[in-house]
């Protein structure tokens, strides 16, 4: 069964930009953040955040957090996603959820070649047939050992804005694997809609400066972002 990848921003910190700006200003003011929050002009919040984080004071954007539901992706993707340690995850269990029909992600390099796709699909059928046979006799937690990396899953992920910046730097880069890159690009698009001032400069390193990848660089820098003030 083909399941399309979906990324939903489920929840995020209310007034994230004003909050981070007020928290940042509270470090340099006699006033407390409660008073500063009342005074922050949303139009100035972006410049304030850029100024403070520009000094290397990145912890101020940790006050904003964002929760996404990432659906219909492969376990090959989630294995990479969960390597990001400054994040919280809740992933569909293969111990408690038994999926008897094949549901898997086919890489585009496979799906564009009919013969390869046929080979891939039949390997999936064989794996799932073995899974069903085993699941009749042993617990799902043991039968799942025959399931492939391509198997689809759902995961809920929460990251703060600082970790998201780091994640997006690594995973929107063209060196990142295609599936996690698609998820990261979609997350960035949705983040720019709700917190444009925090995420205006987020993305691969080449949107902000030179590529750090050296010999591994793709040689195709993205369009540079205009510095927002
Ligand atoms: C293109 C690409 C290829 C990759 N290839 C491989 C591979 O072949 N094999 C492999 O195993 N992994 C691979 N990875 C995964 C990579 O090594 C990281 O595990 C993953 O990207 C998470 O990044 P991170 O550790 O920087 O971030 P996070 O875990 O999100 O942490 C964020 C930051 O917090 C700090 N931090 C977190 N935990 C610690 C700690 N314990 N000690 C000190 N500082 C800490 C670091 O500054 C870190 O950058 C690859 C990643 C990419 C993007």
Layout of SSEs?
Layout: E1 6-12, H1 16-26, H2 33-39, H3 42-54, E2 65-74, H4 75-81, E3 87-91, H5 108-111, H6 114-135, H7 140-143, E4 152-160, H8 161-171, H9 178-194, H10 196-199
Antiparallel strand pairs: 1-2, 2-4, 3-4
How would you explain this protein's 3D organization?
The termini are far apart. A 4-stranded antiparallel sheet has the order 1-2-4-3. The chain has helices at 16-26, 33-39, 42-54, 75-81, 108-111, 114-135, 140-143, 161-171, 178-194, 196-199, and strands at 6-12, 65-74, 87-91, 152-160. It folds into 2 domains: 6-89 and 153-208, Gyrase A, domain 2 (2-Layer Sandwich), CATH 3.30.1360; 95-146, no CATH class. The longest helix is centred in the middle third of the chain and has 22 residues, at 114-135. It has 10 helices and 4 strands; from the N terminus they run E-H-H-H-E-H-E-H-H-H-E-H-H-H. Helix 1 (16-26) crosses helix 3. The model has no long low-confidence stretch (mean pLDDT 93). It has 229 residues and is α+β, with helices and mostly antiparallel strands. The radius of gyration is 21 Å and the shape is elongated. The structure holds flavin-adenine dinucleotide. Flavin-adenine dinucleotide (FAD) is lined by residues 83-86, 163, 166, 170, 175-176. Flavin-adenine dinucleotide binds at residues 83-86, 163, 166, 170, 175-176.
The secondary-structure class comes to alpha+beta
Bound ligands, each once: flavin-adenine dinucleotide
Q: What number of structural domains do the residues give?
A: 2
Distance separating the two termini: 48 Å
| Structural shape | elongated
Strand content: 5-15%
How many helices? 10
| CA-based gyration radius | 21 Å
Average pLDDT reading: 93
CATH fold topology of the largest domain: Gyrase A, domain 2
